[in-house]
Amino acid sequence: MIKTLFRLTAWTLAIALVVLPVAAVLNGWIGGERWPMRHLRVSGEFHLISDQQVRETVLPSVGKGYFAVDLEQVRKNIAALAWVKQVDVRKRWPDRLEVAVAEYKPLARWGEKNLLAENGEIFAIPKNAIFKLPLFEGPDANAREIMSFYSYAKPLFLAMGLQVQSIRMSARGSWSLKLSDGLEIQVGRGEPQQRLARFARLMPQIKNDEINRQLIRADLRYTNGFALSWKQAANKSEAENKLQQGNT
To answer: Across the strands, what pairs with 238?
Structure first.
C-alpha cells in the first residue's frame, strides 16, 4: 500500500514537473524573455483605420512571449476597432506575428444608424463618424437590389452635373429618389429603370424650356407621361403641370 502511494506520488510530481513549466510558458509566467515576439507584420489596404491603430491594439498582447500570445483574443481586440470587417492573425516561428485586416468600404448610409458596404453588408455607423454619402432606405433583404438600382440611376444624371442624393424602395417595391438639386422623383414599381431613363433623356429639354421655374418634383407613375411640379423663381409659388409624352 505504501509502495503504491509512493509510486502515485512520484508519478504526480513527475507529471507536474513537465506540465507546470509548459503551462507557465503558455501563460507567459516564464519564457517571455527567452522567446520574445520581436516582429509584427500588419497587412491590408487602409483608408479608414491606420496601421498604427492596429499595432497599438496588438502590442499589449505580445509582451509575454511567443507562446503566450492568445491569437483569438488578439483577433477579437482588432475586430472591435471601427471599420474592421475581417481579421486574420497567425504566429510564425520563432518571433513573428502576422495580422491581415480587411476594412468595410462604405457605399451609402443605410437609414439613420447604419452604413451599407460595397459588398452589400449592413453595419453600424462607428461613433462620431460623419460621411457625405448617399442615403439608401428600404428592406434589409433588398439591399443589393437597391445598390443595383443606384448604379443604374447614378450615370443618368451625371451629364447634368447632378448626383443621386437618396434612393428609397418601399416595402411594396415602389422606387423614389432625390437629386442633389433637390428634385424629388417618384418612379413607381413597374419597369422603374425604363421610366427613369426616359425621364433623364427629356430632363435637359424640360429644364431649358422652363428657365424661370425650378423643377422640384417629378411623378413618373404614368404610362405615357410625367406629372411635374415647379417652383416659380420670383414668388416661390408652386404649380402643377402634366407633361404628356408619347412613347419615346
So the answer is: 231
Instruction: Dig out the grid coordinates for 167 from the structure.
Output: 434612393
User: Phi then psi for 163, rounded to 5 degrees?
Assistant: -115, 150
Give pLDDT tens digits for 126-169.
887 777 899 999 999 999 999 999 999 999 999 899 999 999 99
Say how far apart CA 163 and CA 153 lie, in whole Å.
Answer: 9
> Pick the residue with more confidence: 16 or 183?
183
Q: What is the pTM of this model?
A: 0.71
Cell 427629356 locates to 202
Place of cell 509510486: 7
The pairing of beta strand 164-169 with beta strand 175-179: antiparallel
Q: Indicate the pairing of strand 135-137 with strand 122-124.
A: unpaired
Picking from 137, 87, 130, 88, the residue whose alpha carbon sits closest to that of residue 106 is 130
Q: Give CA separation, 92 vs 52, 71, 97, 99, in Å.
A: 21, 12, 6, 11
Q: Using one digit for the tens of pLDDT, what is the confidence trace for 161-218?
A: 999 999 999 999 999 999 999 999 999 998 999 999 999 999 998 888 767 788 999 9
